[in-house]
Design goal:
It contains 7 helices and 9 strands, in the order E-E-E-H-E-E-H-H-H-E-H-E-H-E-E-H. With 234 residues, the chain is of the alpha/beta class. The mean pLDDT is 94. The structure holds adenosine-5'-triphosphate and magnesium ion.
């Protein structure tokens, strides 16, 4: 992965391809995301959305193409991927500890502030096994953002959550990105919620970005596949 990206881009993918064994799961993906942009990624199951995020995060190496990301990355995983043997506080502290150079005395207050922001003050000593699905998502959000990354990748931040919690989580994302000007990429099945948050939407299907356009008016997009998907038309 190359580091600095010219032209004010936070993320640039050129001709990216990814296979598992003989199976191609991403083919020829081109994607350019400006710094500070908010991209929503939608599309049918198994289309390649999570693989795309993991390629941007540098967790999978593509066989073809180029991936450039400017700055530090934070990621919320689709299944949260909390460490089951670490407390909530230690899970959230993990990126700071791993990064090194953060004074120990700074870690605890930063973790506490992030947990307050996601409405989990006082849950520091709990283990992931004691948390509800929504609480796990919020711990994952705190962990993804604690090291003040320039680019935050969110994989299904609200899947399985009730509408009120969903609204709260998007409120949190909005507040965070407003305050920091950081770049957001949000994969979400909550099409209306992600379209309200994002400025741009990418429709991913069959291992490629099939459409990219403004988030506003998605239900009337100039592409029938996107319109049908956004409207839930079978
Ligand atoms: N580590 C892996 N090894 C083999 N195949 C994989 C691996 N990760 C993903 N795949 C395959 O790649 C394809 C795309 O998977 P991906 O998880 O990106 O889909 P998705 O669009 O995120 O779906 P969903 O909406 O269900 O989360 C799927 O067919 C999946 O089985
Ligand atoms: Mg996925």
């Amino acid at each position: 992965m190359l580091n600095a990206t010219a032209q004010g881009l936070a993320i640039e993918l050129v001709g990216v391809g990814k296979r598992f064994g003989s199976r191609t799961v991403l083919g020829g993906v081109d994607l350019r995301i400006a710094r500070g942009a908010r991209l929503g990624v939608i599309g049918p199951a198994t289309g390649g959305k999570s693989v795309l995020l993991k390629i941007i995060a540098g967790l999978y190496r593509p066989e073809a193409g180029l991936v450039r990301v400017a700055g530090r990355i934070g990621m919320l995983f689709q299944n949260c991927a909390l460490f089951d043997f670490l407390s909530v506080a230690d899970n959230v502290a993990f990126p700071l500890v791993q990064e090194g150079g953060v004074p120990a005395a700074e870690i605890e207050p930063r973790v506490a502030a992030r947990l307050r922001a996601v409405g989990l003050a006082g849950s520091e000593r709990k283990l992931p096994s004691e948390l509800s699905g929504g609480m796990k998502k919020r711990v994952g959000l705190a962990r993804a953002t604690v090291a003040t990354p320039d680019v935050v990748l969110y994989d299904e931040p609200t899947a399985g959550l009730d509408p009120v919690t969903t609204a709260k989580i998007y409120g949190l994302l909005r507040a965070d990105h407003d305050a920091r000007g950081s770049t957001a990429v949000v994969v979400s099945s909550d099409v209306d919620a992600v379209a309200a948050f994002a400025d741009t939407i990418a429709f991913v299907d069959g291992g490629g970005v099939r459409w990219i356009g403004p988030a506003a008016g998605l239900r009337d997009a100039d592409d029938a596949r996107v319109r049908d998907f956004a409207r839930g038309t079978p």
